[in-house]
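Exam revision sheet. Question 4 asks you to relate a sequence to its structure. Input first:
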Amino acid sequence: MPPTFCPYCCNCLTIARAPGNDQYPQGRNAFTCRTCPYQFVLDQPYYERTYMKQKQKDDILGEEQSDLPVNEVPGGCPNETCDSKKAYFYQLQTRSADEPPTSFFKCIECGKQWREY
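Answer key, structure tokens:
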């Protein structure tokens, strides 16, 4: 694997065209330093593939619900098939400070989630 940083001045190397010679009249690709004359000429094709991990989202209202408060919800659960009046809830300030906080709910029985502004 070719270097990605200059061994002399520790700056990031960029790809540029190295000067040509008898064997390669148009020149070759090389990793070059922009601040010093260092060059790493690429003699063979080089590629690198990096696979990124997808960020795992935290399930705020997931399995660990015992520490969340339970309250009676005005109007009950919005799910038409559920007649529960209780839900887990928490509040977050999602808008400006002069607005009331947003309340997030999750029904105890059916698990439906909703919010009220």
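Marking note for examiners. Residues 70-116 form a domain with the N-terminal domain of TfIIb fold (CATH 2.20.25.10).
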